[in-house]
Design a protein that fits this description.
With 364 residues, the protein is α/β, with parallel strands linked by helices. The chain contains eleven helices and twelve strands. The strands form two sheets. Strands 1-12-2-3-4-5 form a six-stranded mixed beta sheet. A six-stranded mixed beta sheet has the order 6-7-8-9-11-10. Helix 8 links the parallel strand 4 and strand 5. The two termini are 43 Å apart.
Length: 364
């Protein structure tokens, strides 16, 4: 519900942006010259750059909205700054410098956002425990939010799995939103195959995110076909279930928060040996109090995309949508880790963060 309100607000903002941008492009010097003889033609010329930005709708509507809003904000800020300069200096500028600067700033800012979304970093954490792990250390590699089809297709996802393999993981955990409403079946199958080819000590474990089962029936495979492909490739899907590995530590997988019959943490952890280390995979990072109280040692989540488009993540945090947007936090004896995701949802830019997978070295 909260995200629906935010999306509607963004649409309204985008409409306002279109009106402002058309009027703003109409103030460019060459457009003013056209207006002296052909007023209607000048407005047509002013509409052209906005219409070109609007063509990003054919990529998806979210991208179009983001482009419009960022261009609007850049123009507005530059206009305010140059207005102050004119007030202080008492001089008028011959050319519309602020317009050119606004366009340049938008291109540079979103260009960095494009790079951050399409290039995947490796982020390393070291976590210490007094509990026996069955060995000196356990290397857990985790990722979330591949949202296949946005920045990663089957081939590019497979390349990232090869990078993960090079880290020599003991176990790989995936915190949901592997696919999206627009993901393609061939990409899904190829990506499941790539996960199945990972060589680990203890296996690959997966929990479903809020997008994995789909919302709008717009993709060419079902949720059951996804589960079948994961199983075929020896990826263990945990739905309010746990497994004990090496008789020393647990992997606990939670159903997504959006699932009505999700088990509470106290019940889920009640039959586990509390002397053994417990790693919980929970797609959405918003049950920290219960997870800390349950005795979980490590909780790994995604969902937030690390903020994705600034400042959306921090707005969500302020509204109570999540307990954390990115990084680590310790509550009682529980370490929480939220990843920014190996890709992102709907928008091929990350201006609030970057794409990543994480390497968690748990050491005794």
């Amino acid at each position: 519900m909260m995200w629906a309100v935010i999306f509607i607000a963004m649409i309204i903002f985008a409409v306002v942006s279109v009106i402002y941008l058309v009027s703003r492009f109409h103030q460019f010097g060459f457009v003013k010259q056209i207006a002296e003889k052909h007023k209607v033609l000048s407005w047509f010329v002013a509409v052209i750059p906005v219409a070109l930005v609007a063509c990003s709708y054919f990529y998806n509507i979210s991208t179009m909205i983001v482009l419009m809003i960022h261009l609007f904000v850049a123009f507005l800020l530059c206009d305010i700054v140059f207005l102050l300069i004119r007030k202080i200096s008492g001089k008028e500028f011959r050319y519309d410098y602020q317009g050119g600067i606004a366009i340049l700033l938008t291109v540079l800012y979103l260009g960095v956002g494009w790079y951050n979304a399409h290039n995947v970093w490796q982020t390393d954490y070291t976590i210490h425990t007094d509990k026996d792990l069955g060995k000196d250390s356990v290397r857990v590699v985790g990722f979330a939010d591949s949202h296949l089809g946005i920045t990663l297709d089957g081939e590019k996802f497979s390349e990232q799995m090869k990078r993960i393999q090079q880290t020599n993981p003991d176990v790989v955990i995936i915190a949901g939103d592997f696919v999206d409403d627009y993901s393609d079946k061939d990409d899904m199958i190829a990506s499941c195959r790539a996960m199945g080819e990972l060589e680990t000590t203890y296996g690959v474990y997966f929990v479903l995110g809020n997008h994995d089962e789909g919302y709008f029936n717009r993709r060419n495979f079902t949720a059951q076909e996804l589960l079948d492909e994961l199983e075929k490739n020896h990826v263990t899907v945990l739905e309010d279930e746990s497994v004990l590995l090496n008789d020393s530590f647990y992997i606990v997988g939670r159903k997504d928060r959006s699932t009505p019959d999700r088990m509470d943490m106290e019940t889920l952890m009640s039959n586990l040996d509390k002397s053994k280390y417990a790693i919980v995979i929970d797609h959405q990072p918003n049950d920290y109090a219960a997870e800390a109280a349950s005795g979980a040692d490590l909780v790994f989540s995604g969902h937030t995309h690390g903020g994705h488009i600034f400042p959306a993540g921090w707005i969500g945090l302020a509204m109570g949508a999540n307990d954390r947007v990115y990084g680590t936090e310790i509550r009682e004896n529980t370490t929480f880790v939220v990843t920014s995701g190996i890709s992102g949802w709907a928008i091929p830019f990350k201006t609030g963060t970057f794409s990543e997978f994480v390497v968690l070295d748990i050491e005794k």
